[in-house]
Amino acid sequence: MRTLLAAPPIAGLTAVVTGGSRGLGLLLARQLLRRGCDVVLLARDDAELGRAVARLAQWRGGTVRGVVCDVRDRAAVHDRLAEIARDHGGLDIVIANAGIIQVGPADALGPDGFRDAMDSVFNGALNTALAALPHLRRSPAGGRLALVGSVGGLLAVPHLLPYSCAKSAVAALAEGLHAEEGARGVSVTAVHPGLMRTGSHLHALFGGDRRREYAWFSALAGAPVLSMNAERAAERIVSAVQRRRPRLVLTPAARLGARVHGLAPVATTRLTSALARVLPRDGARGTADGSTVAAREQPPARRLRSVLGVLNERAADRFNQR
Predict the structure, then answer these.
(1) Catalytic residue among 32, 92, 163, 293
(2) Cα–Cα distance, 42 to 146 (Å, whole number)
(3) Model's pTM, two decimal places?
(4) In the chain, how many domains are there?
(5) Residue limits of the Ketoreductase domain (predicted)?
(6) Domain assignment of residue 204, yes or no
(7) 33-42, pLDDT tens digit by residue?
(8) Weakly modelled stretches of the chain, pLDDT under 70
(9) Domain harbouring 171, CATH code
(10) H-helix or E-strand spanning residue 103
(11) 45: nearest Cα among 74, 73, 19
(12) Is 163 a catalytic site residue?
């Protein structure tokens, strides 16, 4: 019987989490704190960062603080990480988690939707990785870098195409950096979650028939069988980073989808084509965020969604999404 080796301790190490003010990023920071790391959250919204730090301050372990930074700005990411490394005597763990989700038909999201996804998701991960690596190579504990992709980056998902394209690029970046950085003592972990109950539907951007797109996405994101408890997901991600695993795919549905796509790509494409036929087709160009769409729902639809997505609604309250 194979014996699992204990994960090496990470107490006392300095960790940075981008997109750390809410949702999965907030939970990743909490896991790092509980394991004794000194954690720095990077996010764009100063007020949201303040609320996140206040929520995390109750957890015993390391220290936590927030730094305002837009990961799309390469120079800003470089400067902020250099400042954090100077203040903490180096960097040991960096998790690139920031990004956006756009839901709707490709023609409704348009070229701007694809550019925005690549800028926020892929360029955000790239800027973070390239700015972090010089510091991680100098870590006495051996640097750890994690890039959060998605199962949507392992197979294309209808009505999430900008997101899938950007996450596919993140997957390639993580795999390539893992190969290149191993000789320098830095481990790179590619993380590919499936649906998680984080409350992210309130910040996702919806195009086309926004009401119907919001309805299906928020329902699936909160479905107990298809989606994963976000706290459990964060625990597994941090454990994978701690153990220097090269790749982690979360949720049984995501693992099954990735495997089937690898073995039978034509059959998978036919299946997703059938799925696309039942999704909304019409609607206006441009997007609105989930909280705006939800506010415009009629009371009967709002009550039904709150019942069907009760777990996701609770997650939104708990994970600083409102």
Answers:
(1) 163
(2) 15
(3) 0.92
(4) 1
(5) 13-194
(6) yes
(7) 999 999 999 9
(8) 1-6, 298-312, 315, 320
(9) 3.40.50.720
(10) strand 102-103
(11) 19
(12) yes
